[in-house]
Design brief:
The chain is an alpha/beta fold. Helices cover about 40% and strands about 15% of the residues. Strands 3-2-1-4-7-6-8-5 form an eight-stranded mixed beta sheet, with helices on both faces. A seven-stranded parallel beta sheet has the order 11-10-9-12-13-14-15, with helices on both faces.
Length: about 725
């Protein structure tokens, strides 16, 4: 029997779950079992947990459906536990180093108490000073175990479940479980404190609670706040049935109603349910008020008296009077020019245009990427939606015929941004764009993340300096309603890099649909347009941007590569889009396609891809064509940019470190050999998860047509997909 069973619910925290699991498995005290609770065997968190379970026999995952909520997940973990003592850890929190050793030592001193309370640290998710809110709630107590009657103010209701260790036999004997619904910690901790006979305190931080950027779910507006009253009624009813002594009942009553009054006084949490909440709270107060109880002094005492009388009108007036005179200022529109600002402010007051969609790709570089693919599909499936593409002035001439557009910065640009119901972008809209209630912002992303993104860049000085204000970045993230993902890895990394309250759409990248819909004729046409000679093997060379470089550097002598690789090889050079301001150029066997509008066309034209760390490899893998990694400065890139996984240990094909190695794999044919094929198959399994040719259709049906998630076409399994044919296959 292990000393500890550690239950870790994982719903909605797959992106940070590994932090929690690593913190447990890294403990110096190893006598434990780790029980991650996943939604289902195929849930994102389950994929994370599976790797841990394979490597460590102490990891024993179980499953609980999302409909069971946090309470159901924890109760499932309790039933699966075998340890002497139970610990609960949220999936995005961590155990501090040495935590289990400290708990074991304290339990050895005190004996097997029913509950061992300990301190925890609340750490802001990104920056800010940590706090220790449990410390003042854990009073000076006897050095060993003690009866709860000795410290009656230790009722448990102000502490989270992950701020104590519980003797499993104690929970089993009293059939203690987490009550259903929200505020389940209040009910569970209160019930446990009432039943406990021997408790102890460890004045040391055990859990580091990583405070979510978007705040605690219980702080969000909604009817779920009524469930706080359910937990209050449960505890006070149980206290009366147990005949809890007055010395313990009074602190329990006061702490519960302190939370109730705090919720009742909050200006936004209750919304239209404020009066119903107050009325029911008033009944509970009168029914369970301990005999002889005296209301506290000051403003809180006034609230107690108003609650006892059921005087909601007076209570609301007091709430307004106590509210701060100033509210958080709304973001002001910041278009340039006084007249434009005034017109934008005017348009923001006009009704939303329910049939208007605005698109933008790569900060206005043209009609491209997933916004273009979604736009094209919307014209088919939702023709009632009018569309406007936002572009820079020098990109207007590149727009396909019939595409309505607005030049970025113009009056029409600000007008459509103010009125549009739907806003679709693969980057971010301007800082001054206001997120209107009822508008729908769709973030399509433009690649699978190998390199660190978003706030994960903050610890890399070169990248952080170029990114600018992370606070402003997150302000833009707050506008997102939907974020599109092409694989589970991306889903988890977006959650880490861009923390927000958006909904993840695991639909695949719409821009990659063409990799499954293009025909042999399409491939031949594109090659002719790009100037690829008939019968040649076209190798796409697409290096990524390096933040520590000031301009584009190929890092490779392409003419020498062509000579060494074989006489039939030509290179399609596509620099990062940061350097796409020139015209396409051709020089012998080197064809510069950097300025070509569509990276998807360039991929379709290529028989193979050579890249370093560019996300284009994840998209190109959908074509199931050979990929060669040229990693001449991998260590430097890791150090300066940061990466999410070791590409050299899980590559999509052969890895080369020098020009000679690169040329050799093409000369000897290993670029397309069986080992290359096997590596690519594993890479495709991991990163081509949702790209099946129907991503744009899913987005349009879900976002523009309002179809429920269960009505969206499911993803076609990888084995049944048919990628667009390569030119070499067509020739054969």
């Amino acid at each position: 029997m292990p000393r500890f069973s550690i239950v870790v619910p994982s719903h909605g925290v797959a992106g940070r779950l590994s932090l929690a699991l690593d913190s447990v498995l890294a403990q110096s005290f190893g006598d434990f079992e780790l029980i991650p609770v996943c939604d289902a065997p195929d849930a994102p968190a389950a994929h994370v947990v599976a790797g841990y379970a394979e490597r460590d026999s102490r990891v024993a995952p179980v499953h609980s459906p999302p409909s069971a909520g946090l309470a159901g997940a924890r109760n499932t973990g309790i039933r699966a536990a075998n340890g002497t003592h139970l610990l609960f850890l949220d999936g995005d929190d961590i155990l501090v180093p040495g935590a289990l050793a400290a708990l074991d030592a304290r339990l050895t001193e005190t004996g097997d108490v029913d509950i061992l309370h300990f301190e925890h640290e609340r750490t802001p998710w990104w920056e800010g000073e940590p706090t220790n809110p449990a410390a003042p709630l854990l009073p000076t107590s006897p050095p060993g175990a003690f009866s709860p009657d000795q410290v009656p103010q230790l009722t448990g209701v102000r502490l989270p479940a992950w701020s104590a260790a519980y003797r499993r036999a104690f929970l089993t004997e009293h059939r203690l479980a987490f009550p259903d619904g929200h505020f389940t910690d209040v009910g569970f901790c209160g019930l446990a404190a009432m039943r406990a006979e021997r408790v102890a305190v460890l004045h040391s931080v055990v859990v580091r609670h990583l405070v979510r950027r978007q705040g605690n779910r219980l702080g969000l507006p909604g009817e779920h706040h009524l469930e706080l009253l359910d937990q209050t009624a449960l505890l006070l009813t149980r206290a009366a049935r147990q005949d809890l002594p007055a010395a313990r009942l009074v602190p329990l009553f006061e702490q519960l109603f302190a939370a109730v009054l705090k919720t009742a006084a909050h200006p936004t949490r209750l919304g239209d349910t404020g009066r119903a909440f107050f009325r029911r709270a008033s009944l509970l107060y009168r029914d369970h008020r301990p005999a002889g109880h005296r209301a506290p002094g000051g403003s809180l005492g006034v609230q107690h008296r108003l609650l006892a009388k059921g005087s909601y009108t007076a209570f609301r007036a007091l709430r307004v009077a106590n509210r701060s005179a100033t509210r958080a200022a709304e973001r002001l529109p910041r278009p340039r020019g006084l007249r434009t600002r005034l017109l934008y402010a005017r348009d923001l007051r006009r009704p939303l245009d329910e049939n208007l969609a605005v698109y933008c790709a790569y900060w206005g570089r043209g009609y491209a990427c997933s916004p273009a693919a979604i736009h094209a599909m919307a014209r088919q499936l939702a023709p009632h939606i009018r569309s406007v593409f936002l572009v820079e002035p020098d990109a207007v001439d590149s727009l396909p015929e019939g595409i309505d557009h607005a030049v970025i910065g113009s009056r029409r640009y600000w007008s459509v941004l103010a009125r549009a119901k739907y806003l679709v972008n693969n980057a971010n809209f301007a800082e001054g764009v206001v997120k209107r209630p009822g508008s729908v912002h769709v973030q399509t992303q433009h690649g699978t993340p190998l390199k660190k993104m978003g706030v994960d860049q903050s610890t890399y000085p070169v990248v952080a300096a170029a990114t600018g204000s992370f606070a402003k970045l997150l302000g833009r993230v707050d506008r997102w309603d939907y974020n599109i993902s092409s694989n589970s890895h991306s889903t988890q990394m977006w959650e880490r890099a861009f923390p927000g309250s958006y909904e993840q759409l695991e639909y695949g990248y719409p821009r990659n649909d063409v990799f499954h819909t293009a025909t042999a004729d399409d491939v031949a046409r594109i090659r002719r347009e790009l100037g690829v000679p008939e019968g040649r093997t076209a190798v796409l060379y697409a290096p990524t941007h390096r933040d520590h470089h000031t301009g584009f550097e190929t890092g490779l002598d392409l003419e020498a590569f062509c000579e060494a690789a074989g006489e039939d090889v030509v290179v399609l050079l596509r620099a990062h889009y940061f350097y796409d301001r020139g015209r396409a150029q051709g020089s012998g066997r080197i064809i510069d396609v950097t300025a070509h509008r569509s990276s998807e066309d360039v991929c379709l034209a290529a028989d193979a891809l050579v890249t370093d760390y560019s996300s284009i490899m994840f998209d190109y893998a959908n074509l199931d064509r050979p990929i060669v990694v040229y990693a001449d400065d991998w260590e430097v890139y890791q150090e300066t940019r940061g990466v999410y996984f070791d590409l050299l240990k899980a590559p999509p094909g052969p890895v080369t470190r020098t020009p000679e190695e690169l040329a050799r794999v093409f000369r000897d044919g290993s670029w397309a050999g069986p080992e290359s094929t096997a590596a690519r198959a594993e890479f495709r399994r991991r990163f081509c998860q949702f790209d099946d040719g129907y991503a744009a259709e899913r987005v349009v049906r879900r976002v523009f047509l309002g179809r429920p998630p269960e009505a969206i076409p499911s993803v076609i399994p990888l084995a049944r997909r048919v990628p667009a044919p390569a030119a070499t296959l067509v020739r054969k």
